[in-house]
Amino acid sequence: MRPSKRAPDELRPVSLERGFSKHAEGSCLVRFGDTHVLCTASVGEQTPGWLRGTGKGWVTAEYGMLPRSTNERMRRESAQGRQGGRTLEIQRLIGRSLRAVVDLKAIGERQITVDCDVIQADGGTRTASITGGWVALHDALAWMRKRGMVGDGALVDHVAAISCGIHGGQAVLDLDYSEDSEAGTDANFVMTGKGGLVEVQATAEGAPFSDDDLQALMALARRGIRRLVDLQAMAVG
Amino acid sequence: MRPSKRAPDELRPVSLERGFSKHAEGSCLVRFGDTHVLCTASVGEQTPGWLRGTGKGWVTAEYGMLPRSTNERMRRESAQGRQGGRTLEIQRLIGRSLRAVVDLKAIGERQITVDCDVIQADGGTRTASITGGWVALHDALAWMRKRGMVGDGALVDHVAAISCGIHGGQAVLDLDYSEDSEAGTDANFVMTGKGGLVEVQATAEGAPFSDDDLQALMALARRGIRRLVDLQAMAVG
Amino acid sequence: MRPSKRAPDELRPVSLERGFSKHAEGSCLVRFGDTHVLCTASVGEQTPGWLRGTGKGWVTAEYGMLPRSTNERMRRESAQGRQGGRTLEIQRLIGRSLRAVVDLKAIGERQITVDCDVIQADGGTRTASITGGWVALHDALAWMRKRGMVGDGALVDHVAAISCGIHGGQAVLDLDYSEDSEAGTDANFVMTGKGGLVEVQATAEGAPFSDDDLQALMALARRGIRRLVDLQAMAVG
Amino acid sequence: MRPSKRAPDELRPVSLERGFSKHAEGSCLVRFGDTHVLCTASVGEQTPGWLRGTGKGWVTAEYGMLPRSTNERMRRESAQGRQGGRTLEIQRLIGRSLRAVVDLKAIGERQITVDCDVIQADGGTRTASITGGWVALHDALAWMRKRGMVGDGALVDHVAAISCGIHGGQAVLDLDYSEDSEAGTDANFVMTGKGGLVEVQATAEGAPFSDDDLQALMALARRGIRRLVDLQAMAVG
Amino acid sequence: MRPSKRAPDELRPVSLERGFSKHAEGSCLVRFGDTHVLCTASVGEQTPGWLRGTGKGWVTAEYGMLPRSTNERMRRESAQGRQGGRTLEIQRLIGRSLRAVVDLKAIGERQITVDCDVIQADGGTRTASITGGWVALHDALAWMRKRGMVGDGALVDHVAAISCGIHGGQAVLDLDYSEDSEAGTDANFVMTGKGGLVEVQATAEGAPFSDDDLQALMALARRGIRRLVDLQAMAVG
Amino acid sequence: MRPSKRAPDELRPVSLERGFSKHAEGSCLVRFGDTHVLCTASVGEQTPGWLRGTGKGWVTAEYGMLPRSTNERMRRESAQGRQGGRTLEIQRLIGRSLRAVVDLKAIGERQITVDCDVIQADGGTRTASITGGWVALHDALAWMRKRGMVGDGALVDHVAAISCGIHGGQAVLDLDYSEDSEAGTDANFVMTGKGGLVEVQATAEGAPFSDDDLQALMALARRGIRRLVDLQAMAVG
């Protein structure tokens, strides 16, 4: 039995609250159980320097955690004077994942910045960020479409993400913090609405894992992501 | 007429939502209209170095804004590698204000850190932070009292804050962003529940102001803060 | 009796030594008793980026303390890799105060930087900086006028500043360091030559203060600033 | 045909030159074709703070690239004042990979730091770092064993890593820089000598990939890593 | 003829004003013509970590320039977030020079920090710093002797420094800024009161120089330093 | 007898391995005994800002040490967030030395960056860097000449460097680390192929040194550098 009493393939309650922010072109407060992330998408009129003159735009992401989003208060990264390795790693992953479903030619020489700020953390902040970030991005693109800044095909597909792990010898979906702490293997999957893989990251926390373990985790993830994509579709529908 | 259609002495709708955070010892989501600040109070078992051996504790505050809490996206301070002068100035003010109503001897050699993170900004983030920070601090002290870490008198009084300004020649209370941008004089007042002044900061934005102007602003502030203290009392009552 | 033996409304000996620096367009070594600040005004041919194309210039200030300007040696901010919150707060105050009496349109797209470096500290470094900074600024504008870079009206008025506090139950003017350490309330006032208020900052160090306290401090400040403005006028006359 | 003319499952020439450094307790210059990484393992007599008193040690890694290890000169990270996200991500991966095969209890409260410095880069620097880092680590542990600092079982298994990708529609092993730039999917696998998976990271560079793609890449990687483990065994044999 | 009209072996007017600072244990405002440096010596009760337990103390120096000490305003190093290479190089030189004449055993496990802050620069700031720093150090040691913290022999000798250069084909002493800008070779010499060399640094600015050139510069420097040592002796006599 | 058993005027075995790097326009692995430095010269198409429009180019150097190039592992400067004073001092010296033999007009508005990275350190890293850096620079200029980017006279002469010291009362050439630690005086000389002096730096480590000492060191250095210049000529011949 999982500490959370959930079935192995059961997601936590997920909600996607659009338009949470008054200012952003697109925004979504995403909740995976007690993990709450505010995602905002901001449209900027400049593409990064290395893309100037190419006609292409860019989608980037930034990630942060409020100091007391976690059980123990963490030091504020701005006070430390730098973003930690984990932060940089996660925001690079979110950015890659979202870019996988955007036609960068279509958005022109602009940059959309998706900020994912963790209000409360209970495991799975990066997968919630990708899943909710897609909604914010969707709405920012809709905002642009309304103003004639992009055409229809800028957003190519859904993208969503979920974590899986091996807990007590069993593959389980969507680990919360206490499950994650005890999991033997920890994996994150990012997939598109059509089921294509965008990113797979699996890490042995203790003993190494096998090909079969990875297959089992991937099967679970596929099911979870299908559900998340449905929820995204409902949210923006 | 104020852009916000409010009467000169009318606060925006204020709400103080306690226990917003699952992890913090005390927390409060404070809303002054469209200004939303998440305040968490974290109890740490170490007082700052310069207080060690004195038997005294410390209350400090940190302040931050989410990058898209504002109309235009701001650069993330952690990515810039430093907190700006405005941030440092505000968090020093919040810390001083909260310390004014805490008996530092009573909390022992501990530190309570009040984090004020602006989720959405529309003027008055520092006054909202002080007002909501007091609720978070109150609850953290209650949490400590329940565990026998402090006695009853650690929290000496309420403290709350409000901004005032001269807008279109008239003294008005609790400026939102658009009023603040046009105000000729901008002032922040911090007062205790008993009406004592803790901090007065008044700045001429254009033409200098007179003693009478300052008196008028102070009278408004006094009324507003009395109302905020009532709301605090209801929230924690 | 004040530790300094001064009457409650008595300033320390003040001197304003113009042209202290061989290189700067304007400079002043200001002394408020044992507090000595070197103020230099440097004329730069570029306005900040956000003012380009507006025809307006800018006046900004920077503040620093020599490591052994204080009783205990302080760490050098350049060695620490950042300016502290107090430094940033003070230089923002100096900048705002000086801008209050300059016609930014008149100086064209240039920037005047007033550096206030504390050679020796004994309380009141920010008020000395504003008072002496005005002299340096005056002389830099005179230097510009001589070269036809500005007309006559660029400097609109005097601006000067003084601290007040409540010491031993009595309102006193121009606190030195030992008085400041014991003062119950600490306030800084910035006023123009015509007596308009530019900035009021009052902070309760221990018990809160009352409206009457603030009034008493303001009355003292008004007298002191009138005297400082006279000294400025003599210095540049 | 691959640009490198290699068969799809063909590694570049690999060499592992032990004892390259006169000073380090263990060292290895690893070459995967034109990718050359100097790995040194340094034994320190202190475990990180959060492990003190647990009897456990730590293995950590740091990664860097010489400024002209790449085709275009890169800015030196020490001159920029921070390590980039890619650097931090890679050194975290190397550290996790090496820890997977070390009994941290066995090394006592010490830290072994494996520095991986890229002398010349041509793709696959992180996989070469892990593969060569294991040799350096092996020799540092042997050095410790000779001095009675650890027993025999501290090093539990081999660990090695290889990249794979889909190039021109075909799964290929050990991509060099020019292949990597054109690859549609890019994956890194870390496995132990016994064939257990330690880390899988697969990223779609353009179109998403399928489960079958991942299986094909994993099969290739398995073959390549078996070969690398043989080379490690020969090197330290 | 030198631009300064001085004879080739003529120093600028030099003054050493002791006790310039109210707070420091030793201080000296040194003037080499228009180069003015405030030197303060601060006695700290802790030796650096790597000397703890050795019974030895340390003498270190820090160097800074006020932003408008120079003809063009320089950016403040604290605002830039780091000390430049020139600053670090100079303060290392000053520290080494002063340590050469102090018995570090005699001062016990303490650190004396000599801060050299350039109030106004006109060439030769490092040589003025060493020369004036010695006076500040002398007085700090006298302060310690008075309190029984050191015995008589802590200060072993004088140390002073001067620059020389080849200007218009001729070796000249104590270059001011305009001479320094045109000098073909630039050298700094540090010598003790007994005439021993502590440091020689000579740099070709344009064409290389010869052994004879260096000899000529050294002879001039020897004469200049003898004079500076006399002035030091008078100052502290 | 020297610890290294070398004659007083005997260099360590020196080798200059050209073309060590696949990517750089010029490169050289220089070995002075166990001191190994990789020098690469990178041609950039932009001169520094302050030279734009002058038609002149620039040669600059950067210096770094791998963390375990030394006997004790050093902290990585990129992880510390800044380059230390010693690093900055050395790279400034290398840059000045190389510029002394380049006609900056001839290379046009370009910058050549010579990176000197210490792979293994055993004393004399700065002198090895200058000596090997010249070879890398030579080859980068040859690369430019082949492409018609410079004419023949861009490289005016050789430049090389060597350390000397007084060890056990005797002047000795090319100190290794253990000799350097015990040396009473430590000097570095930089000379051109024609024997002109570019830089002399001599430092008393304990007792001051005399003019005669300096002369003796210089004579040794002259002999050593003549030999290094021969080796350079052979390497590029």
Write structural notes for this entry.
Chains A, B, C, D, E, F: One of its GO terms (biological process) is rRNA 3'-end processing. Chains A, B, C, D, E, F: Residues 10-140, 159-223 form the Exoribonuclease phosphorolytic domain. Chains A, B, C, D, E, F: It comes from Propylenella binzhouense. Chains A, B, C, D, E, F: Phosphate binds at residues 86, 124-126. Chains A, B, C, D, E, F: Keywords: Nucleotidyltransferase, RNA-binding, rRNA processing, Transferase, tRNA processing, tRNA-binding. 6 copies of one chain form a homohexamer. The first copy, chain A, is globular and about 50 Å long. Chain A is of the alpha+beta class and 237 residues long. In chain A, helix 2 (85-99) packs across helix 3 and helix 3 packs parallel to helix 5. The mean pLDDT of chain A is 96. The first copy, chain A, has 5 helices and 9 strands; from the N terminus they run E-E-E-E-H-H-E-H-E-E-H-E-E-H. Chain A has a 5-stranded mixed β-sheet with strand order 1-2-3-5-4. In chain A, 31% of the residues lie in helices and 29% in strands. Chains A and B meet through strand 3, helix 1 and strand 5 of A and strand 3, helix 1 and strand 5 of B. Strand 9 of chain A pairs antiparallel with strand 9 (197-204) of chain D, so a sheet runs across the interface.
